[in-house]
Amino acid sequence: MSKKPILERYDSHEIYGFPGQGPFLLTCEHASNRVPAPLRTNRSDRQWLQTHWGWDIGARTVSREIIRQTGSSGVFSRFSRLVCDPNRAPDNSTLIRCAVEGAVLSFNEMLTIEEVDRRLQTYHAPYHAALDRLVTQRQKQAGDAMLLSVHSFTPVFDNEERGMDIGVLFHPYEGIARRFADEIAAEGYKVALNEPYSARNGLMYAATRHGTSHNVVHLELEINQKLIGTTQGARKMGRELSRALGRLRLRSGSN
């Protein structure tokens, strides 16, 4: 394994880690709150982009730490989910949101079919092509692998406090998901399955798309942002999740 992880940065995504090596493939669809040119933002937009609507706070740092600890690799988006959401299918109604909590986003206000297609071709498609190549590269090597999509959630949503620390989303792979949840709980966290969202509702698009097409075990993590809102907290979480992953025994074809 190389001594230092590689970093390749493109307009739509970045690749980090040790491609073709390690047991895990990390994917972070909401790693950035960047709105690339030629799109422009105003003051109201920028306020929303700093919140959970703009990106998954802490998820990129957690993912990078897991990659370093396990000698694995990953793909991270370099555009906000409000530009277009790589964790949604191209025909999903929430692919691009024109407003959040009643506030209109200026860069989505005059959205046209041509602009939707441009964003799909410029950001969504290259992100998924990069992830597809990374999984293909890893599958050329021996040993079991797991595709793990890393996300975070806001502690309070719609005036309701979410009490759990971490959610493990799965569909199918229930057996592995339950074992992983137990290992995370052993690190001292309150863990739930298919919470705060269920993978059975199509909300785990990226992991499902590539895990299914490559026949590789795939799960998604949802981490409470109160635990990873700082770099220190996110890296600590990454180390603890790496320990849990290190105890998780994968079995090819198991569920």
What does this 3D model show about the protein?
The chain has 255 residues and is of the alpha/beta class. The chain has a single domain, classed as 3-Layer(aba) Sandwich (Aminopeptidase). It is 35% helix and 20% strand. The chain contains 7 helices and 12 strands. It has helices spanning 43-49, 59-70, 113-139, 174-185, 205-214, 225-228, 231-247; strands at 6-9, 13-17, 24-28, 73-77, 99-100, 103-104, 146-153, 156-157, 160-161, 166-169, 191-193, 217-224. The strands form 3 sheets. It has an 8-stranded mixed beta sheet with strand order 1-2-4-3-7-12-10-11, with helices on both faces. Strands 5-6 form a two-stranded antiparallel sheet. The longest helix has 27 residues, at 113-139. It is globular. The model has no long low-confidence stretch (mean pLDDT 95).
Q: How many β-strand stretches? A: 12
Order of helices and strands: EEEHHEEEHEEEEHEHEHH
Q: How much helicity do the residues have?
A: 25-40%
| Oligomer state of the chains in this structure | single chain
Strand order of the largest sheet: 1-2-4-3-7-12-10-11
Using the alpha-carbon principal axes, give the shape: globular
CATH architecture: 3-Layer(aba) Sandwich
In the CATH hierarchy, the third-tier topology is known as Aminopeptidase
The helix count comes to 7
The structural class is: alpha/beta
Work out the radius of gyration: 17 Å
